[in-house]
């Protein structure tokens, strides 16, 4: 009868002993640790402020983990929207409880609309998450079909999707005229320019000048672009030489 080599029974013996040691360790240390941990049911913290929810969970020896907030108008800012594990789930103490917190209602910034056309204003609002609302037509010295007033000031924080009222120019009031620029013009030319705008020369004030030709307009009142009634006068300051006195 052949003698069995020593290595054929030593290796299995070592394996068996090792497994036994591992089982003893698990039985003595690992299992008691898990078994000794108390269990509890997860409370409902949905709808609560995140700070209150965290305190409730910590009081039960649970480990709250706040996840990245997201916008949701159904929940106030910093209030719990979802929790995982769910309410009444049976868990061990120390279990992580994941909380999804609301960022509140999404807000956007009001853009600048003045002097834009209605179409441009609509595009600008839509790009910023807002909606063009009521359009009111008003008399204005600004160009017709341009925005002269906006409901909210530029830079104001608004809820996403807010409707914005604007006022649009339909031009100046009937019977009004815009004063043209006549500075630097000879008096005769200035008179013709004013006449084409249904205006006329008013009071003439003369000043001496050695650099400008006589009868050159150097000042005017009202100023360029002011609105006045049709037929009004524009007072002017005109150059003269000393010999003109």
Number of distinct beta strands: 15
Can you give the helix content as a percent range? Answer: 10-25%
Radius of gyration: 42 Å
Supply the number of structural domains: 3
CATH-defined topology of the largest domain: Trypsin Inhibitor V, Chain A
State the CATH architecture of the largest domain. 2-Layer Sandwich
Order of helices and strands: HEHEEEEEHEEEEEHEEEE
Provide structural commentary.
The longest helix has 31 residues. The strands form six sheets. Strands 2-5-3 form a three-stranded mixed beta sheet, with helices on one face. By secondary structure, it is of the alpha/beta class. The protein is built from four helices and 15 strands. The protein is rod-shaped. The protein folds into three domains: 67 residues, Trypsin Inhibitor V, Chain A (2-Layer Sandwich), CATH 3.30.10.20; 63 residues, Trypsin Inhibitor V, Chain A (2-Layer Sandwich); 69 residues, Trypsin Inhibitor V, Chain A.
Output the keywords.
single chain; 245 residues; alpha/beta; Trypsin Inhibitor V, Chain A; 3 domains; three-stranded mixed β-sheet; 4 helices; 32% strand
Write the layout of secondary structure elements.
Layout: H1 6-36, E1 39-41, H2 50-59, E2 63-70, E3 80-84, E4 90-92, E5 96-102, E6 107-109, H3 118-127, E7 131-138, E8 147-150, E9 157-159, E10 163-169, E11 176-178, H4 187-196, E12 200-208, E13 217-221, E14 227-229, E15 233-240
Parallel strand pairs: 2-5, 7-10, 12-15
Antiparallel strand pairs: 1-4, 3-5, 6-9, 8-10, 11-14, 13-15
